[in-house]
Amino acid sequence: MAQAEGFDAVGFAPADIGQIPGNRLQDFIALERHGDMDWIVEKAAWRRHPQALWSDARTVIMLALNYGPETDPLAHTGKADRGVISVYAQGRDYHDVIKKKLKRIARALLKDYGGDVKVFVDTAPVMEKPLAAAAGLGWQGKHTNLLSREYGSWLFLGCIFTTLDIPPDTREEGSCGSCTACLDICPTNAFPAPYQLDAKRCISYLTIETRTHIERDLRPLIGNRIYGCDDCLAVCPWNKYAKHARELSLEPKPELNAPKLADLVTLDDAAFRALFAGTAVKRLGRNRLVRNVLIAIGNGGNSEYLAIVKPLLSDASPIVRVAAVWAVGRLADIVSYTRLRDEFAEQETDDAVLTEWKLSEGDFNESAG
Description:
By secondary structure, the chain is α+β, with helices and mostly antiparallel strands. Helices cover 39% and strands 9% of the residues.
């Protein structure tokens, strides 16, 4: 059934997976590595163990869908005029695609074997990666993501909780050995140690999850990544064994493979919704995407973008205005910067934007010093 639905791997884990994953979750929260993802804290009691979420669950069926790219996902990194969108988000929203597949399998399971089921795809407090490892689909690598001998780092995960008792598969005992490629490539040093992630420094968190301004010291490290980051996944040596995705239902959009920053920064809400309809990016919202694009433009350092950045200094969203001020500080000379500051800062009412004007001016003073 899983293969018929396009999944590449399936495994079975006991719903009782012990206390270790939950204890690691608590450590993660205690160290405040979750940033402003408050839902992790609020639902931690459910997340720490499958049977805390559903006490009747006896087995977790883990399914994996390969989304291995055909081209190098890092090919456009650092290009000043292009933005990089994570491979998984260049097509239809995987939540929608995979959940429909899981529901069809769950219905067939109920029909043939009875019991009860619940399906999840990143939509409930479930620790999919420890469960996938327990089901024999792979192991968590030093980058904390699931690694597979057959598919490398490129797997979507979905799960079916069931009241049926199904014999579990053997846990995968993989190894990263002495390799630290994923840790070494991380632009923001988001890994305090192997197998540990500080989400607050992760580019995927910064460009997708955080709902406010991105810290100034991290902005230059983001480069031209405007939605997510594939660096730690893409450099994993296990990817040499990975197969290209055979499941095409995510329907990648060519226009989302390294789109032009100049086209994205001018999007209004309607144009944003039209371009990203049906994709995971749409859930980000226009303001946060434009924030990310402005940071990429600032990092590109091309002063020709000043003309299209200028109108965003009076954008309705403070999140956009802060990023626009920062971009101007990276693109303009001191004369142009001062002229724009005098024009826009006087009418500014938001404290964060006013602070950004002052800090960006300080950047010029430091450079002069």
